[in-house]
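Long-time lurker, first post. I've been practising inverse folding by hand and with some scripts of my own, and I keep getting stuck on stretches where the structure tokens seem ambiguous. Below is the full token string for one chain I'm working on. Before anyone asks, I'm not after the true native sequence, just a reasonable design that respects the backbone. If someone could post their per-position residues I'd love to compare against what I wrote down in my notebook.
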């Protein structure tokens, strides 16, 4: 039977907790685990059920469980299955035989206790009650509760004190979502080793450096910071490519943290006008929610280059932004040579702030001409080119990018014509310059000839005079 077993939550010393379970699938048993900063996690079955869904679909196996799970999540599974089976033939629609049972309802902002019956005779007690309960957040709720309160009935319960968090990797997307929703977000959740489209391979020293730097970012922005280590790929890689899987991994982690957070933001990877089949997206991300948790996929209104322009206004973001995907020797915070570094540096350069950023202070144009550019990234580079054309800044950078894009197999005839026209214009500018230079050379030549002729005439007359004097003496 394909199911989840041996679920455990173990405290690993002060401020660290490990949540793990075995997922039994296709006759195999796999252990999955999260080590999370903090004292507790949500202990229900939902996070591990979420982790099991896509692998079960990929191996066309039903999931069976006696333990009940959130009806809202199970309903969400239905649509998730529609989406992924529609995207890729590797996924099959499977039966999820799990009983539904509503989780304890999330606590809504409200007020505690009873308003003393007969508010007027007891003004002092009433005033104290109102002072205790009615801050700005609960006022609205109290107004809705007024009928029952005036009858001396209790309010709608204690205020929900859980917070709002966002997944945070220090990259463009997560900085954008953090800055955009900063008033609401209290906490940054950082999955060390990466939880993004392409997770970073393990690298102790660099990982510690990144974690410390991002922890400092949180401190400077007045946010809490939660570090998480996840061991999922030893399981998921047997069934599903991480590119499809990582959204459900974030969903499961969000559920584990739902005892602390009522809402968790996931930063978008692609804009609405360029959505792609991918693990984290605006359709399936919110469906990992339960009755006690909202998940928001945020930032699809903006494409990546535009996000860089937006976050460029924040000095903290610019000086700590990390996008590098160079996993070779000499790993650095940002190598400045890999495609993702170059792509980000080009926008920072156009904004005139590359020097103040967490990247090398100059961009190597030749590296742009030769860097390996997968076809699915053409759009991102075209966006940068559009931005450069709009601002008219950095014409040389624009030219190099245009040339690089033209070499890509997916480039259409329009782009090729545009590139040729641009090259023609460049040659014409060069020709005009050379023509002017040739004209000035010609003029100079005429002047030189005149000078020569004058000198020759003078020399001739001088010679004549000498000859005449010699004749006279003789
Ligand atoms: Zn790099």
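-- Answer (accepted) --
I ran through it position by position. Result:
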């Amino acid at each position: 039977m394909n199911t989840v077993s041996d679920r455990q939550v173990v405290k690993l010393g002060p401020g660290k907790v490990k949540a793990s379970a075995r997922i039994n699938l296709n006759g195999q048993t796999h252990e999955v685990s999260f080590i999370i900063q903090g004292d507790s996690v949500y202990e229900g079955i939902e996070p591990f059920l979420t982790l099991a869904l896509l692998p079960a679909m990929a191996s066309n196996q039903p999931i069976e469980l006696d333990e009940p799970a959130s009806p809202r999540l199970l309903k969400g599974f239905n649509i998730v299955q529609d989406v992924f089976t529609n995207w890729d033939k590797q996924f099959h629609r499977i039966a999820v035989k799990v009983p539904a049972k509503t989780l304890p309802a999330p606590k809504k902002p409200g007020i505690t206790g009873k308003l003393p019956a007969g508010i007027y005779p007891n003004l002092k007690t009433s005033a104290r009650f109102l002072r205790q309960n009615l801050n700005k957040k609960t006022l609205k709720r109290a107004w809705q509760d007024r009928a029952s309160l005036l009858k001396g009935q209790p309010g709608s319960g204690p205020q929900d004190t859980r917070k709002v968090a966002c997944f945070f990797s220090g990259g463009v997307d997560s900085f954008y979502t953090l800055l955009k929703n900063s008033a609401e977000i209290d906490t940054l959740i950082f999955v060390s080793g990466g939880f993004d489209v392409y997770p970073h391979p393990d690298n102790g020293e660099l990982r510690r450096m990144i974690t410390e730097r991002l922890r400092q970012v949180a401190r400077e922005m007045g946010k809490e910071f939660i570090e998480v280590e996840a061991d999922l790929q030893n399981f998921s890689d047997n069934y599903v490519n991480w590119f499809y899987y990582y959204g459900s991994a974030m969903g499961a982690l969000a559920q584990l943290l739902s005892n602390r957070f009522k809402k968790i933001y996931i930063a978008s990877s692609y804009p609405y006008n360029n959505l792609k089949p991918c693990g984290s997206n605006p359709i399936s991300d919110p469906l990992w929610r339960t009755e006690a948790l909202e998940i928001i996929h945020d930032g699809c209104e903006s494409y990546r280059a535009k996000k860089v322009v937006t976050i460029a206004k924040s000095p903290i973001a610019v000086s700590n932004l990390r996008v590098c995907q160079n996993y070779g020797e000499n790993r650095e915070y940002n190598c400045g040579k890999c495609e993702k570094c170059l792509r980000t540096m080009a926008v920072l350069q156009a904004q005139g702030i590359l020097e103040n950023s967490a990247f090398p202070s100059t961009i190597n144009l030749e590296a742009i001409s030769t860097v390996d550019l997968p076809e699915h990234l053409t759009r991102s580079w075209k966006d940068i080119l559009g931005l450069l054309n709009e601002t008219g800044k950095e014409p040389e950078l624009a030219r190099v990018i245009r040339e690089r894009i033209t070499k890509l197999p997916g480039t259409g005839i329009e782009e090729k014509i545009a590139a040729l026209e641009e090259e023609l214009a460049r040659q014409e500018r060069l020709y005009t310059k050379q023509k002017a230079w040739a004209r000035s050379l010609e003029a100079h030549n005429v002047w030189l000839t005149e000078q020569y002729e004058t000198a020759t005439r003078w020399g001739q007359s001088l010679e004549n005079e000498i000859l005449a004097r010699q004749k006279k003496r003789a």
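A couple of notes from the structure itself: The chain has four domains: 3-104+161-298, 107-159, 304-411, 417-474. The longest strand covers residues 16-25. Happy to go over any region you disagree with.
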